[in-house]
Structures are given as C-alpha cells and as structure tokens.
Amino acid sequence: MILLDTNLLGRLTDAADPSHVIARDAIHRLLAKGDCPIIVPQNLYEFWAVATRPEGPPPAGRNGLGMTPRQAAQWIRFFRRRFTLLHDRPELIDAWQILVEARSVTGIKSHDARLVAAMQTYGIDRILTFNEPDFRNLPATVVAPAAV
C-alpha cells in the first residue's frame, strides 16, 4: 500500500500541468505492479479546496485549479472508485498529536503530519508525492512519482 499525496491527485486532473503525465504514469505503474494506491478523507478535503480555488498565481488567481463544485465532485467520485479510501480511525487524532509534538511541527506542515498519522494508523509507510521536502522531518518513506 502507498498513500497518494493530494498534490498528485491535482496533477492527475490537470492535463496542462507539466507533471500530469508523470503522475498518470506513476499510478499506472503502481497498479501494474499490483500495488494498492490509497487515499484518506483528508486527500478529498484538500483536493476540493485546491480544485475549487481560482486558477493562476496570486493576486488574480489563488493557485487553484478553477473547477466548479460539480467538476470537483466528479473527480472526487472518480478517486473514490479508482483508489482505496481508508476512513479515519479513532486513534488518528492521538497519533497526529504525538507526531506534531515529537517533531515540533508548525503551521501548514501540520496537514502533512496528519497524512502521516493516518498512514501510521493503518501501518502504511510510503507516500507518493511531488513534494518530498514537505515530509522530510516526518516518519514516512517518500516516493517520487518519476521513481515508481
């Protein structure tokens, strides 16, 4: 099993993104090897937030994908059909708090720590992401999509 980071999901939906083909091919290679790509509820919340924000860099855009709620919902349905969705376990909040306190995680990195805590509750140790530095101080094996 390998958790898919939300940045990978965003690139899967945007054929104009230079990393789209890399993301798509990584998923195909994982599936061909019999690996099980996993998502958690947080991926879906984060995807919705990015997908429905205006496109483009600030100030005109907000680094989003510019989707309508209907388009974002269609993608979420696709992700739920295509990947295994593991629901949050009751021990997630405790695992997250232990992790952020032990690693002195601050700010936006607390979202990445929550993904890792969700992984820990299921015994998953790998995450597929384009943002390796985001997980540098966290107990997860980072896999770059090009390396799959």
Write a structural description:
The protein is of the alpha/beta class. The protein has a single domain, classed as 3-Layer(aba) Sandwich (Rossmann fold), CATH 3.40.50.1010. 48% of the residues lie in helices and 9% in strands. It is built from 6 helices and 5 strands; from the N terminus they run βααβααβααββ. It has a 5-stranded parallel β-sheet, sandwiched between helices. Helix 1 packs across helix 2 (20-32) and helix 3 runs antiparallel to helix 4 (69-82). The longest helix is centred in the middle third of the chain and has 14 residues, at 69-82. The radius of gyration is 15 Å and the shape is globular. The mean pLDDT is 95.
- Strand content is 5-15%
Summarize the amount of helix as a percent range. Answer: 40-55%
Overall 3D geometry?
A: globular
User: Compute the gyration radius: what is it?
Assistant: 15 Å
Uncertain runs: none
Q: What is the CATH C-level name?
A: Alpha Beta
* Cα separation of the termini: 13 Å
CATH architecture: 3-Layer(aba) Sandwich
Helical segment count: 6
SSE succession: EHHEHHEHHEE
CATH superfamily: 5'-nuclease
The CATH topology comes to: Rossmann fold
Largest sheet: 5 strands, parallel
SS-based structural class?
alpha/beta
- Average pLDDT figure: 95
Largest sheet: spatial strand order: 3-2-1-4-5
The number of distinct β-strands equals 5
